[in-house]
Amino acid sequence: MATIKPIEGRSVHQIQSGQVIVDLQSVCKELVENSIDAGATSIEVRFKNNGLDAIEVQDNGAGISPEDYDTIALKHYTSKLSTYDDLSSLQTFGFRGEALSSLCALSKFHIVTARASDGPKGTKLEFEQSGQLRGTSVVAAKQGTTVVVESLFYNLPVRRKELEKTIKREYNKVLALLNAYACVSTGVKFSVSNQLPKGKKTIAFSTNSNPNTKENIANVFGAKTLVALIPLNLTFEMDPSNRPGATQSARNWSTQEDAGSRTVAIVGHISRPVVGEGRQTPDKQMFFVNSRPCTLPQVAKAFNEVYKSYNITQSPFIFADIKLDTNAYDVNVSPDKRTILLHDQTTLLESLKEALIELFEGHDQSVPHAQLQ
Ligand code: ADP
Ligand code: MG
């Protein structure tokens, strides 16, 4: 008798969903990214009981068309990508059509949405665990979309228990991630609040629709943060094929027809390495690739190493956005899209260190960094 059999569909869905939505941070990341992709200029994130009871993300983006209600939460249904080739020119955060379907499988989930043409009326969408639309009803709503995630992991007892045990730490991790989205998103007003069961609602932080990242940083971390910062504006040409021992991927990259793909720019803000100066500046470090927040441990290490050679007593504030051609990195590495693979990272790190030394050496330390006007 055959012992190898397919796993039943519902269980497969639950197993896969658990890889996309791994924790509180992934819920917020997916929902905020959807709001930005929908062109929102205002995003409000509301936590109830640190996110344990509910996470709500409300935006004023385009809203959802009635024609899409049936498929919006089905697995691999997306408005952002249709073939694998599109991935190399991706301009949106999302592309796999997995977030909403995973949230249906792992939480009590609903959406309220309204388009500009819908007037003051919106539609509430409710779903089955499978992502099938269960029903719709008319509700009062402003233009945009609100996604409500209640009782995250209620049907995965081990994960739910772990979430309850670690919720304070998880909540702080989420705030750090939301800080990064708020700082990098110019022209978008962010507001993040938390309602504890018996306490009052507290605003964790908020930004105005600032035209630049510097003002976003001032809103999020306080204006004093800016005192110790200098602009980061590094540009270098990379020709990985010329290096001895260059990897095959580096060679492939360097032979691409698009000559622009070899120019790398790193823009943002960093603490001046002057001992004692940045006491008011939190040692926050945020990294982005084309404005996509991500963890880049090797890049972080390179920044910190160079900084430490000038100032061993402090850790720098870093906001570094690496501007790369879209085919010079891969976001499709892990289901939660947190890991980004940079092609020929070694060459990039070497060039980065050289450029940073030049920046720190060349910077006239007696001139204070321009403050907000
Ligand atoms: P992906 O972002 O990879 O496309 P999701 O499951 O996150 O997958 O979302 C599925 C689709 O739902 C999106 O492609 C988009 O068309 C729509 N959508 C999700 N969130 C919003 C939102 N806040 N506003 C408008 N449309 C949205
Ligand atoms: Mg998405």
Automatic annotation (TrEMBL):
Official protein name in the record: DNA mismatch repair protein PMS1
Covered range of the whole protein: 1 to 373 of 1084
Similarity comment: Belongs to the DNA mismatch repair MutL/HexB family.
Organism per entry: Trematosphaeria pertusa
DNA mismatch repair protein S5 domain ranges (all copies): 217-361
Transmembrane domains' residue ranges: none
